[in-house]
């Protein structure tokens, strides 16, 4: 849900997903002289609560000197940004956000303008697209505060509340989807990693209820084949499983489950989430349920093709013909693209869609940026282009090419149209006022960003979402077993995806800044120019902070786009 309100020259725009509400503020530049920031008050009409939202920075003049990780009311320690996000929002809740533009000295802030905007967050299970993002940020200030950076499961085992916090509904959605299957129903599973005991046990229970359960998992390499086999055997479902060995060497990289009622497919659960601890509770992922029988039937037909274990020379030509790409813009609604294909036509098509973004583009890259998208981020017409990376360079860059490749990415990053963030965590607390963070240890390969999706003009009236299992890479297009959805015109789903994208982008952009700050502090200490010890980053007491939001900068472009 989106709503924009202006009062006395102050604009507030709220974009409500399911667990995130994005707030954007705007004022005329001439009104910003003396602006100290924005105070934000939230009223939860659903739970009858009202309070000022909190931040983690203070003015030096009014710093109460609390312990690292403390939070402060934005009424007294305002937000010095034209965007803010409420990550504590709950699905299906009715909220009013009151925004104050504050001026005056830090110890006597006075409202200059005030505006209120009321929105309702989305419930994941409403509509034909149910979207569940896991937390995807175990290395966080909130996890450290709640669970002390301990490994999930180290207290209470399966009942450890850390699991539910990390899942944030994704794990529950998978189990509830499987739980629908009973006698006369069926489930068809296509999996790369198939080793999460709770999911395997749920499939065993569905079979025991009389459901027709068949599972196809990747067995082309030692990993994840050996663990898939071991867990299937442990759950007593080995007889329900077939092994997929793509030839020539590739990955059966799908993560989907088709629900059948009788012999007809009625729903499909897909997305980027492997059926593993790391997939559900660690790295960032999405579980996306499509309640459209036509789409579910396409997935069922694809699964049946894969069950025969065809070689690429047979499968790729057939998928290329049976799932043709649109000439230009995709049709309204939901369409499917399955791999492997004969060529890189699907990757090129995604590139054309990205290049066609009029206002804004948002993409995630788990394994680096392909040349197709480098061209988009270099010359695309969208005035705002976001990218979220696991690492800035993919794993396939040769050593002798790394310096050149890194320079290319840094040059792209410096363009005012582009805003990049790379997965990272706060390593220590020697030089700042933040709590040190640790990873869960659930992921050995991809630690932070595992999602594969693209948002094209998500705040427009005709947004496009591309999402699924396929990394935006050559191998995911013409070698691996992959599935993707292209969803056009669904503003509800776009709002959910955009909120989650910005949640993680903000999370990792800040951590990159913190790591650079830490490196600078260490260098100063070694040079004898600074004594070791905490040095909080205070709010700006001068009249300078807001000016970079009105220059030819990425921040200015962000303000203009999100505030509408």
Explain what you see.
With 564 residues, the chain is α+β, with helices and mostly antiparallel strands. It folds into two domains: 2-123 and 538-552, Immunoglobulins (Immunoglobulin-like), CATH 2.60.40.10; 129-510, 2-Layer Sandwich (Endonuclease, Chain A). Helix content is 29%, strand content 26%. The protein is built from 14 helices and 24 strands. It has helices at 141-147, 161-167, 170-179, 197-208, 222-234, 277-282, 293-307, 312-322, 345-355, 371-379, 402-413, 474-478, 491-526, 554-563; strands at residues 2-7, 10-16, 21-26, 35-44, 49-52, 54-55, 72-73, 83-86, 94-103, 110-120, 129-133, 185-191, 212-218, 241-244, 255-261, 264-271, 286-290, 333-339, 360-365, 384-389, 418-422, 453-456, 464-468, 482-488. It has a seven-stranded mixed sheet, sandwiched between helices. The protein has a seven-stranded mixed sheet with strand order 18-24-23-22-19-20-21, with helices on both faces. Helix 11 (402-413) links the parallel strand 20 (384-389) and strand 21. Helix 3 (170-179) runs parallel beside helix 4 and helix 9 (345-355) packs parallel to helix 10 (371-379). It is globular and about 70 Å long. The chain starts with a strand and ends with a helix.
């Amino acid at each position: 849900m989106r709503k924009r309100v202006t009062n006395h020259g102050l604009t507030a725009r709220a974009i409500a997903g399911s667990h995130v509400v994005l707030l954007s503020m705007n004022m005329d530049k001439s009104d910003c002289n003396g602006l100290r920031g924005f105070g934000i008050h939230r009223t939860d009409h659903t739970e009858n609560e009202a309070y000022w939202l909190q931040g983690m920075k203070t003015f030096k003049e009014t710093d109460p000197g609390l312990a690292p990780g403390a939070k402060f009311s934005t009424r007294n320690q305002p937000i010095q940004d034209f965007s803010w996000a409420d990550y504590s929002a709950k699905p299906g809740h009715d909220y009013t956000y009151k925004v104050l533009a504050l001026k005056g000295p830090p110890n006597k802030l006075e409202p200059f303008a005030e505006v209120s905007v009321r929105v309702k967050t989305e419930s994941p299970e409403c509509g034909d697209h149910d979207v569940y993002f896991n937390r995807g940020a175990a290395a966080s200030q909130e996890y450290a505060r709640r669970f002390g950076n301990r490994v999930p499961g180290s207290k209470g085992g399966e009942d450890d509340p850390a699991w539910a916090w990390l899942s944030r509904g994704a794990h529950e959605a998978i189990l509830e989807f499987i739980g629908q299957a009973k006698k006369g129903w069926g489930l068809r599973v296509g999996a790369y990693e198939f080793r999460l005991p709770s999911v395997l046990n749920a499939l065993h229970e569905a079979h025991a209820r009389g459901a027709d359960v068949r599972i196809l998992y990747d067995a082309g390499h030692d990993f994840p084949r050996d663990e898939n086999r071991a867990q299937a055997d442990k759950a007593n479902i080995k007889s329900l499983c077939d092994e997929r060995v793509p030839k020539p060497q590739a990955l059966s990289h799908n993560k989907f489950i088709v629900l059948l009622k009788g012999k007809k497919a009625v729903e499909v659960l897909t997305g980027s989430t492997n059926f593993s601890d790391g997939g559900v509770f660690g790295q960032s992922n999405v579980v996306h349920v499509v309640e459209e029988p036509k789409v579910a039937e396409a997935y069922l037909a694809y699964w049946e093709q894969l069950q025969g274990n065809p070689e690429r020379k047979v499968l790729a030509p057939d998928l290329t013909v049976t799932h043709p790409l649109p000439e230009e813009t995709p049709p309204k609604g939901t369409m499917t693209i399955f791999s492997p294909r004969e060529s890189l036509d699907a990757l090129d098509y995604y590139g054309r869609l990205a290049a066609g973004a009029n206002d804004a583009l948002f993409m995630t890259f788990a394994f680096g940026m392909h040349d197709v998208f480098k061209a988009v981020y270099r010359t695309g017409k969208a005035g705002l282009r976001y990218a979220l990376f696991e690492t800035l360079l993919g794993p396939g860059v040769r050593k002798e090419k790394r310096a050149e490749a890194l320079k290319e990415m840094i040059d792209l990053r410096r363009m005012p149209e582009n805003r990049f963030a790379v997965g990272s965590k706060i390593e220590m607390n020697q030089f700042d006022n933040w709590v040190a963070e640790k990873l869960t240890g659930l992921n050995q390969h991809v630690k932070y960003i595992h999602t594969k999706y693209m948002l094209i003009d998500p705040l427009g009236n005709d947004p496009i979402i591309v999402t699924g299992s396929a990394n935006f890479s050559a191998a995911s297009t013409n070698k691996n077993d992959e599935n993707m959805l292209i969803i056009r015109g669904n503003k509800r789903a776009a709002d959910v995806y955009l909120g989650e994208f910005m949640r993680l982008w903000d999370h990792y952009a800040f951590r990159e800044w913190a790591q650079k700050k830490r490196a600078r502090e260490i260098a100063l200490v070694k040079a004898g120019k600074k004594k070791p010890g905490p040095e909080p980053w205070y709010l700006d007491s001068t009249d300078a902070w807001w000016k970079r939001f009105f220059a030819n900068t990425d921040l200015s472009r962000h303000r203009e786009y999100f505030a509408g």
